[in-house]
């Protein structure tokens, strides 16, 4: 994202925030001394650790209950969905869609399934 913004002439003036719900992961990113104990990690983590050290990315702890990304990455309880959907702005989209469907004249189309 930073590269795209820079190409469009809008270079970011501050670090990008990465919300993480794993405190051990944050410790590894912030403290290079943990590197010796984490030999099994993939090369992408090394890039991420370097980006954190160069202040391109800042890592922030977010409790698992408030991690909105879990909605897209794992099966979650209904309470998580109820928490995450408004934060993503999906309520407005859903209400707009329902408004559209409710005010359609479906007498000529044969039903909602034909319109959608």
Structure, explained:
The protein has 116 residues and is mainly alpha-helical. The protein has helices at 2-7, 23-30, 43-53, 70-73, 78-87, 90-102, 112-115; strands spanning 16-20, 57-61. The protein has a two-stranded parallel ribbon.
Number of helices: 7
The beta-strand count equals: 2
Radius of gyration: 21 Å
Question: Topology as H/E string?
Answer: HEHHEHHHH
Number of domains in the coordinates? Answer: 2
Largest sheet: 2 strands, parallel
Strand order of the largest sheet: 1-2
Q: Estimate the global geometry from the Cα principal axes.
A: flat
Distance between the termini: 33 Å
What structural class is derived from the secondary structure elements? mainly alpha
The proportion of residues forming helix, as a percent range, comes to: 40-55%
User: Please, what is the average pLDDT?
Assistant: 75
């Amino acid at each position: 994202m930073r590269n795209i913004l820079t190409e469009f002439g809008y270079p970011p003036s501050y670090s990008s925030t990465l919300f993480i719900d794993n405190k051990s992961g944050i410790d590894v990113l912030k403290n290079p001394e943990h590197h010796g104990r984490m030999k099994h990690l993939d090369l992408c983590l090394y890039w991420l650790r370097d980006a954190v050290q160069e202040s391109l990315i800042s890592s922030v702890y977010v409790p698992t209950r408030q991690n909105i990304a879990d909605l897209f990455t794992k099966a979650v309880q209904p309470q998580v969905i109820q928490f995450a959907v408004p934060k993503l702005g999906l309520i407005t989209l859903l209400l707009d869609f329902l408004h559209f469907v409710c005010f359609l004249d479906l007498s000529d189309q044969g039903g909602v399934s034909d319109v959608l």
